[in-house]
């Protein structure tokens, strides 16, 4: 199922795709694309490791900053253009129409998805922004503002992929916040209706006699 944001016209897939979108061979193997899984995790994991250990091996903030940014950029490109399409059959992208307006497109075609690869994809996609959020809190309370800039860039790049793939997964036409609110309202209404219209059970009486 291909979906796009409201008001955005559907556009055909790019003609230069070397692999048909969503049509990759997903046989019953533990990992169909082991190298893709490796590169899906290695760049974002390496960026976190370098951020943690850079102070031990180098006193240069600029060198550490540039190295982490390069790893994050490689991760962003890999996740957005390769691993999302091959591992979970999802893709999000942007195009500019003839009038110069920018449009965002979210696509989903999950008929052949390997479960192990899907778990690894979502684990890496969700866990890393959470770790960078923890680093942001540490920088904030430690008043490390120069490192906070690096953490904010990391949150932006990893968070953009997370947001894009969540939109692909749950539907671009549906607002996630409103969907959650509607679900909560529905549960409250059902509980209130059940409480108001359910007849209480009659009290049980026991007859006792005097012998």
Features:
single chain; 211 residues; mainly alpha; three-stranded antiparallel sheet; 5 helices; 3 strands; 60% helix
Description of the structure:
Helix content is 60%, strand content 8%. A hairpin with a 5-residue loop joins β2 and β3 (102-108). A 3-stranded antiparallel beta sheet has the order 1-3-2. With 211 residues, it is mostly helical. It contains 5 helices and 3 strands, in the order βααββααα. The model is unreliable at 9-20 (pLDDT under 50). The longest helix is centred in the middle third of the chain and has 28 residues, at 115-142. The radius of gyration is 25 Å and the shape is globular. It has helices at residues 34-57, 61-87, 115-142, 145-170, 176-197, and strands at residues 2-4, 90-96, 102-108. This is Golgi apparatus membrane protein TVP23 homolog. The chain crosses the membrane at residues 35-54, 61-79, 120-140, 147-166.
The total of beta strands comes to 3
Count, helices: 5
Overall pLDDT confidence: 76
Rounded radius of gyration (Å): 25 Å
Name the helix and strand elements from N-terminus to C-terminus, one letter apiece: EHHEEHHH
Shape: globular
Helix content: 55-70%
Strand content: 5-15%
Instruction: Give the strand line-up of the largest sheet.
Output: 1-3-2
* Terminal Cα span: 78 Å
Query: Could you give a short account of the major beta sheet?
Result: 3 strands, antiparallel
Helix and strand composition category: mainly alpha
* Unreliable residue runs: 9-20
Helix-strand layout with pairing:
Layout: E1 2-4, H1 34-57, H2 61-87, E2 90-96, E3 102-108, H3 115-142, H4 145-170, H5 176-197
Antiparallel strand pairs: 1-3, 2-3
Helix pairs in contact: 1-2, 1-3, 2-4, 3-4
Family: Belongs to the TVP23 family.
Organism: Parnassius apollo (Apollo butterfly)
Membrane topology: Multi-pass membrane protein
